[in-house]
Amino acid sequence: MSDESTNSSSELSEEELAALDAEIAAQLDAEESGVIPAQWFVVHSYSGMENKVKRNIEHRAESMGMTDRILEVVVPTETEIEIRSGVRKEVEKRVFPGYILVHMVMDEDSWYVVRNSPGVTGFVGLGNKPTPLNDDEVNKIMRRIESDEPRLKVNFQIGEHVRIMSGPFAEFSGIVDEIYPDKGKAKVLVSFFNRETPVEVDFLQLERDT
């Protein structure tokens, strides 16, 4: 490959250059003005104690007069539909067990308050330096936890033996051939008149054939 083609493939587009220039300019302006922008950081906590640690951080931020620098504490959760024994149930699940998001202005004082809140085991980052999430990561997480559509937890696997509990093929056993999480259904291969027949069945109609 020629040097010319290599250089052209590594060049940034005008839009990318403009975005990079704007980011650098914003950083320089912040440095010159002495204003540190608030960013999202990830804090590690003991699993199962996320909500308690969230309250601890919020309480310490208030009692230490740091609410202007520790702005928001979020335990990412989403609604998940579980199907057990033919019963559909909505439950709230933590997206990242053991992790909490903190929107904060990072300096020595705010770091100290969060880091020394009960239940916090540390910040996520390179070495001892907390690493903020980039905008794409934040947007992806927020879209997920703010979605009104609950996620369906799939309890079946392709190749698994199942029994159909209701419908035209009730009491038939078969093997899961395909899974359609968005529809809450599975394609099951059942033996019907000595012939393997694919049947599309709702997850609610299935149970593991043990």
Description:
This protein has helices at residues 3-10, 14-33, 50-63, 108-115, 135-146, and strands spanning 39-45, 70-74, 77-84, 87-94, 99-104, 120-123, 125-126, 129-130, 151-152, 161-164, 173-180, 185-192, 195-202, 206-208. With 210 residues, it is of the alpha+beta class. It has three domains: 1-35; 36-152, 2-Layer Sandwich (Alpha-Beta Plaits); 161-208, SH3 type barrels (Roll), CATH 2.30.30. A five-stranded antiparallel beta sheet has the order 13-12-11-10-14, with no helix packed on it. Strands 2-5-1-6 form a four-stranded antiparallel beta sheet, covered by helices on one side. The longest helix has 20 residues, at 14-33. It is elongated and about 75 Å long.
Defining traits:
210 residues, alpha+beta, Alpha-Beta Plaits, SH3 type barrels, 3 domains, 5-stranded antiparallel beta sheet, 4-stranded antiparallel beta sheet, 30% helix, 36% strand, elongated, disordered N terminus
Write the layout of secondary structure elements.
Blueprint: H1 3-10, H2 14-33, E1 39-45, H3 50-63, E2 70-74, E3 77-84, E4 87-94, E5 99-104, H4 108-115, E6 120-123, E7 125-126, E8 129-130, H5 135-146, E9 151-152, E10 161-164, E11 173-180, E12 185-192, E13 195-202, E14 206-208
Parallel strand pairs: 3-9
Antiparallel strand pairs: 1-5, 1-6, 2-5, 3-4, 7-8, 10-11, 10-14, 11-12, 12-13
Q: Within the largest sheet, what's the order of strands?
A: 13-12-11-10-14
CATH architecture of the largest domain: 2-Layer Sandwich
Number of domains: 3
Q: Average pLDDT across residues?
A: 81
Low-confidence segments, given as residue ranges, are 1-10
Proportion in β-strands? 35-45%
Given helix and strand content, the structural type is alpha+beta
Number of helices: 5
* Shape summary: elongated
